[in-house]
TrEMBL record:
<dbReference type="GO" id="GO:0004315">
    <property type="term" value="F:3-oxoacyl-[acyl-carrier-protein] synthase activity"/>
</dbReference>
<dbReference type="InterPro" id="IPR016039">
    <property type="entry name" value="Thiolase-like"/>
</dbReference>
<keyword id="KW-0808">Transferase</keyword>
<dbReference type="InterPro" id="IPR013747">
    <property type="entry name" value="ACP_syn_III_C"/>
</dbReference>
<dbReference type="Pfam" id="PF08541">
    <property type="entry name" value="ACP_syn_III_C"/>
</dbReference>
<feature type="domain" description="Beta-ketoacyl-[acyl-carrier-protein] synthase III C-terminal">
    <location>
        <begin position="221"/>
        <end position="306"/>
    </location>
</feature>
<feature type="domain" description="Beta-ketoacyl-[acyl-carrier-protein] synthase III N-terminal">
    <location>
        <begin position="108"/>
        <end position="185"/>
    </location>
</feature>
<dbReference type="GO" id="GO:0006633">
    <property type="term" value="P:fatty acid biosynthetic process"/>
</dbReference>
<dbReference type="InterPro" id="IPR013751">
    <property type="entry name" value="ACP_syn_III_N"/>
</dbReference>
<protein>
    <submittedName>
        <fullName>Ketoacyl-ACP synthase III</fullName>
    </submittedName>
</protein>
<dbReference type="Pfam" id="PF08545">
    <property type="entry name" value="ACP_syn_III"/>
</dbReference>
<keyword id="KW-0012">Acyltransferase</keyword>
<dbReference type="GO" id="GO:0044550">
    <property type="term" value="P:secondary metabolite biosynthetic process"/>
</dbReference>
Amino acid sequence: MIGIKSIASYVPTAGLDNYVQGAKFGKDEEFMFGKIGASFLPRKAPEQETSDLCVEAARALFANNPDLDPQSIDALIVVTQNGDEEGLPHTAAIVQSKLGLSTRVAAFDISLGCSGYVYGLYAIKGFMEAAGLKNGLLITADPYSKIVDPEDRNTTMLFGDAATATWMADGAIWKLGEARFGTDGSGAEHLKVSDGTFFMNGRQVFNFALVKVPAHLHELLDASGLQSSDIDAFCIHQGSAAIVDAVARRFEEHHPEKFVKDMLETGNTVSSSVPLLLQKHMLDGSWKRVAVSGFGVGLSWASAILYRD
């Protein structure tokens, strides 16, 4: 059964002091910590492209797993909505070349934002199992610094650049369990790019997350025959501190601490936020069962159970 064998990441060391940004817009430290949740926002270098972030994450994965031969990779999926240059060719093809992977690799992009990692896990698992492939790379990289207006107080204090790489293969400790997905394109206008600049209706996005995500997680648990007490941790998209806290309170008023919140040094990294949590908190921990959920652009959402025997 194809599952998660390892996760690595690349987070640029350069970036923005978010408290300085907050002061510019009249926001105090309490607001920045309690509502935004990020004191630092990593930023790629001007000369770095999306594919370069992908390559850095993949190389970190190979360095952490010397038994993984890059030439054995036969599936590569890149989750991004901000690919190289103008998005053609697909970023996965560029990553294949830069990493020197075999030309026999199946490589393609998934154009999804904050729900993209969860969608990507099941897309690559199904693709690999259907085609009899052995080793897959699921890479996330969505540098919103390419599209965010630094003068837009609704977005510039939220987003950080990062990339992750997940090794998918047989014999993995972490397996993929039940999953549920959803799309509501009637809300597309709330998160979109116009003339190369990102726009977000923060109030509508907050309301969407608060209404949709707790109900979706309950639906997932019901489908899995589980109770919230059976879940060791909930790793949901780190949209902002306010969103994570509100979803946690709405879903589980008695144990909101089960919802992991860790975005102080990264901010909202879009499709990379969930795998960053998993890399840091799940892989080396004592957890047996984790619920993940991503939600955002589309509007789109996806939730799943990850477990180990």
